[in-house]
Amino acid sequence: MKYVLVGLTCVLLVLAFIGGSSYYKGQQAEKFGFLAQKNAELFVRDHSPTLGSDDAKVFIVEFMDPACETCAAFEPFIKQAMAANPGKIKLVLRYAPFHDGADNFVKILEAARLQGKYWETLELMFKTQHIWASHHNYQPERLWEVLPRAGLDIERIKKDMHSPTIAKIIEQDMADVKTLNVQKTPGYFVNGRPLQQFGYKQLAQLIQSELDAQYPTKR
From the CB of residue 36, how many other CB atoms can be counted at a distance below 10 Å? Predict the structure, then answer.
């Protein structure tokens, strides 16, 4: 009888886990309708920085590295696409710090977020990349020289960047990088569709195809 009860308990626990997992995925799929098919949480985590309207139907998920020159080059392009389609596009940033020591740059960025200066700091990091990360020649000490321009409390940044919470964010993003097979930065997904051939033209076409699908023109 004892073994039967233990067995039944195990079965009930497994069913509860499966039910809970399905409910969570269902909630995620409902929240991110564009990925209703599956695995929305791989693309958008609760900790992910986002820019744009919550009502947008086109999600650009970008796996980026603050030290990546191509990420910096594509930033204005993404913002132009968003400005040209007001309220229709939402940008989601994920981390893929592939460059040596780049996880420290992500930690600085996340620490700036705690001061409500995330996007200002990211823009500053990209604009001054030629000073502290020119052609993969990383000079972190030069970054500290420019960060005050974003209005940051530098001493607080140096303390907060070592938070275990920030380390877990990077750890989760890198796990998703592996699952989604992101191998370079920036890595783009538009409504869950990967950018297969990299380039401005190809990304513009992918974004436009989703805009056309989600916002069909009435005739």
Answer: 13
